[in-house]
Amino acid sequence: MLDLLKNRSFFIVWLGHAISSLGNTFSAFSIAYLIYDMTGSKLAMGSIMVVFFVSRSTSLLWFGPYLDKWDRKKVMIFSEWSGAIVFLFPLIMFSLGSLEIWHLVAVLGVTGLTVPLYQPSCLAYISQILPKEKLLKGNSIMDSTGQLMMLVGPALSGVLLYSFGVKVILISLVLLLGIAGALLLFATSTSHSQIKEQESWGTRFKEGISIYKEHTFLLWLALLLVVLNFCKGAFFPMFLPYITEVIGGTTFHFGLFESSFGLGMILGTLWVGFKKTNPKHLRTVILGSVIVDGLFSMTLGWVFTFALAALCIIVSGFCMPVMTVNNTTLYQKNVPGHLLARVFSVRILLTTIATPLGAISGGAIAELWGIPMLFTLIGLLMIFASSMAFFLPSLRKLNSVDEKERSVVGI
Fold it and tell me: CA separation (Å) from 329 to 1, 68, 156, 244, 263?
């Protein structure tokens, strides 16, 4: 890790990512708290988030093809500072005692347009500032840092809310996003000489999509990620009723359960980046991790003690970054740099659409047949999709996609 942090630009992006991730957990917490406090309606909480998903999807679809045209550092700064500026609005209105629901809807709409631009630009930027043999470790550091902030952020938000009130959380997130953007000012700017300034949106979009025709294994990996996000979209919202109704636990157990998943993800990302023994069969590692995840997700529906449930969710959390971090690294190594941000935006768009669809489907299945059956079906879908992927010709040769760097592609 230390050798990567000696890279000045990577260190700045990593530190900014850590601060930004903490700020984003504060924003999610404060929005959820304010909506529920003002309406007392769980339906309102779910419905208002649709605004964010629609806005996010629109942003990725419309602006995604242009991301490779723009300086990636400037896009990341814009994303961070726009979030800070937008959240000043509810902070001011709350301080004046004039905050209304439509203010929060507006905040979600605007941040849905700007925040999604950060991730594809950041992933593309990292591929430019790190050599290929360092990408897997770099991705694992970034991912584990983000997961750590997601683990710490909600707990810290709860402490701040209890001690000082929601206003302090709003102030903190504005400062954190502002600082994250300011740090990025000191990172190196990047550009691509191959980008044509006058290309239309349609031309840029088609050029980004064309990479999937050239590298079909990337398309299948993206579709597998869509299935995984669909399943997780159905999975995550059921954690609270699972713990309280199936396991018979309390909200305290619910907090420990969510933290267990986060702990598993942190351990998984660290294992991906720092395990010295590289896999001889990358395809088996990626697809096998989804199968193991499916098995433990399915098992979760049929255990009735908290200890066993926590063990299952830790393993599930561990498996997820084994697939996603390797997936991201393969994109960075095989997509031309001048196309990378728009290709990532397409992948993120697909997974963004899959998540709420999974949540809607999962809620309906849980209502009809119960949570144990939902978890069973989720696990079976993950196992089926990954098992079928083993027979795809393009994925059979996954280990030799980048033969020269095969020893560093895996974990």
Answer: 17, 18, 31, 38, 22
